[in-house]
Amino acid sequence: MQKRQLGRSGLDVTVLTFGCWQAGGSGWTGTDDDDSLAAMRAGYESGINFFDTAEGYGNGHSERLLGRFLRETGDANVLVATKVGDRHLAAPQARAACEKSLQNLGRDKIDLYQIHWPSGTWGAPSCPSKRP
Questions:
Q1: pTM given for the model
Q2: Do the beta carbons of residue 54 and residue 62 sit within 8 Å?
Q3: Is the peptide bond before 128 cis (omega within 30 degrees of 0)?
Q4: How many CB atoms sit inside 10 A of residue 83's CB?
Q5: Is it the case that residue 128 has pLDDT exceeding 70?
Q6: pLDDT digit string (tens) for 94-119?
Q7: What are the residue boundaries of the structural domains of the chain, listed by start?
Q8: Does the active-site annotation cover 113?
Q9: pLDDT per residue over 53-80, tens digit each?
Q10: Which of 18, 50, 57, 69 is catalytic?
Q11: What CA–CA distance (Å, rounded) separates 107 from 62?
Q12: Which CATH number fits domain 3-123: 3.40.50.300, 3.20.20.100, 3.40.470.10, 1.25.40.10?
């Protein structure tokens, strides 16, 4: 599996990323944790080393399931991207969301932490809020 450096991070990620949205269960029908874990295993066994999830996928369920998979593999070289939701962009909420994601994933670091939706999207407050 081909890899490329992720920006200037020094991290080499596979050109294919395993997306874990469906593993969250919300917004999808017929999802099953065992099937999701089997799919993660198949991706990993095919050489994928980069897995993408978000706090909003099943209200953290996808992160928790990915955490279970990570513990199962025990491979510290598996890289994880997750995302903070648009309602958690103020500094205190972003820190709390990051800590929750770390707990869900069972990790002490997140390799790529992203903003899921831009500030002000879907009626969320703009951040930082404008001061009078």
A1: 0.91
A2: yes
A3: yes
A4: 22
A5: no
A6: 999 999 999 999 999 999 999 998 87
A7: 3-123
A8: no
A9: 999 999 999 999 999 999 999 999 999 9
A10: 57
A11: 14
A12: 3.20.20.100
